[in-house]
Amino acid sequence: MSDGKMVGIVLVSHSAEVAASVAELAKGLTGGGTAVPVAAAGGTEGGGLGTSAELIAAAAASVDRGAGVAVLTDLGSAVLTVKALLAEGDELPAGTRLVDAPFVEGAVAAVVTAATGADLGAVEAAAVEAYSYRKV
């Protein structure tokens, strides 16, 4: 996009290590092109397994470039935490969307698509389409 706006991506996992590794993988597969703002929000503030509304909100704020923020989650309570933040209305940047997509494949598709300057709808569509990736 010529206006410098880019979709940000937040990866929410119950594990800080999983979230960080998926972020690293997705960014690494963009081919070193445009740097997409990606943030991992994994685990709890104390470093344990779980999800943290505070870490998710901070991650979303850190990747907001004015074109929306796509949030991908791993398991149940991560989804519930993001839904609760969205319901509160003022905890996440405007244009933040919870994306229903597989965590790893969806994250890669979202980051690769965002790197092209695509809008939030296209980033979400690419991530959702990852459900159709067949392995056999």
Describe the model.
The chain has 136 residues and is α/β, with parallel strands linked by helices. Helix content is 43%, strand content 14%. The protein contains five helices and four strands, in the order βαβαβαβαα. The protein has helices at 16-28, 53-63, 76-88, 103-114, 120-129; strands spanning 8-13, 38-42, 69-73, 96-98. A four-stranded parallel β-sheet has the order 2-1-3-4, with helices on both faces. Helix 1 packs across helix 4 and helix 4 runs antiparallel to helix 5.
Lateral strand order in the biggest sheet: 2-1-3-4
The ordered string of helix (H) and strand (E) elements is EHEHEHEHH
Radius of gyration: 14 Å
Number of DSSP-assigned strands: 4
Features:
136 residues; four-stranded parallel β-sheet; 43% helix
Q: What's the gist of this structure?
A:
By secondary structure, the protein is an alpha/beta fold. It has 5 helices and 4 strands. Helix content is 43%, strand content 14%.
Layout of SSEs?
Layout: E1 8-13, H1 16-28, E2 38-42, H2 53-63, E3 69-73, H3 76-88, E4 96-98, H4 103-114, H5 120-129
Parallel strand pairs: 1-2, 1-3, 3-4
Helix pairs in contact: 1-4, 4-5
